[in-house]
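Input structure tokens:
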């Protein structure tokens, strides 16, 4: 499968590497096609890797990943061309965090995940990986198998994303439709604040019974 990853930061690169490990071809994208971080990643990543602009990657990918800074995610998707997302699974990893101390920019009865779905009504948005540290996305080395929360309206899309989670060593927790992105984003914030307070970066959530 061809995967387009929007976002040239550590998160975009970690997910791009994970997709290559699964045998997919990956285009990593920034605002401009000649983004130096994306070009450097391609040099290391091998023949299935390429880079381009947000719009190039959105056209290229059969599955897409949103891994831009959260407060500009809607602007990035607009640059990418909303029509390019129609009928595709979009994994939304972004968290809209602002200020110091950091806080969620969108709270209450809305979330970034829902805004992304509203902007791209024909895409199947799945909020996933936003609750974990990027260093743990792919084959995390932890004391137990952690759980990934995935929220989205389309069960088929969640099944596809769930398979990727499992392939990378995660259990899957499904709290429901994209409206539950509100809670996934809040959980992410709790993880981040705990990480800063206790220097606890290599930890992840797990539901136990
Ligand atoms: N750090 C983690 O472990 C972690 C874990 C889970 C989720 N997240 C979330 O994942 C996302 C990515 O995090 P990150 O640290 O890898 O990268 P980041 O620094 O938050 O974002 C980098 C990307 O945002 C784009 N961007 C910046 N300003 C923009 C603008 N004005 N318009 C359009 N695009 C713009 C950049 O484009 P260019 O490439 O053109 O510069 C780049 O591709 C964030 O939403 C973050 O909250 C982070």
């Amino acid at each position: 499968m061809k995967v387009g990853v929007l976002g040239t930061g550590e998160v975009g690169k970690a997910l791009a590497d994970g997709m290559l490990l699964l045998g997919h071809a990956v285009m990593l994208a920034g605002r401009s096609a000649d983004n130096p971080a994306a070009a450097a990643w391609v040099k290391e990543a091998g023949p299935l890797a390429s880079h381009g602009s947000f719009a190039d990657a959105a056209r290229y990918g059969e599955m897409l990943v949103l891994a831009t800074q959260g407060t500009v995610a809607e602007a990035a998707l607009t640059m990418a061309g909303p029509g390019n997302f129609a009928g595709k699974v979009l994994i939304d990893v972004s968290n809209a965090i602002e200020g110091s101390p950091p806080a969620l920019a969108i709270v209450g009865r809305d979330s970034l995940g829902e805004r992304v779905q509203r902007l791209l009504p024909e895409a199947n948005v799945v909020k996933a990986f936003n609750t974990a540290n990027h260093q743990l996305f792919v084959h995390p080395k932890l004391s137990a198998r952690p759980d990934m929360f995935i929220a989205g309206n389309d069960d088929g899309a969640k099944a596809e994303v769930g398979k990727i989670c499992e392939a990378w060593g995660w259990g899957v927790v499904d709290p429901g439709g994209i409206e539950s992105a509100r809670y996934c984003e809040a959980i992410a914030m709790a993880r981040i604040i705990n990480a800063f307070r206790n220097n606890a970066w290599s930890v992840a959530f797990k539901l136990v019974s």
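The chain has a mean pLDDT of 98. Residues 2-198 form a domain with the Rossmann fold fold (CATH 3.40.50.720).
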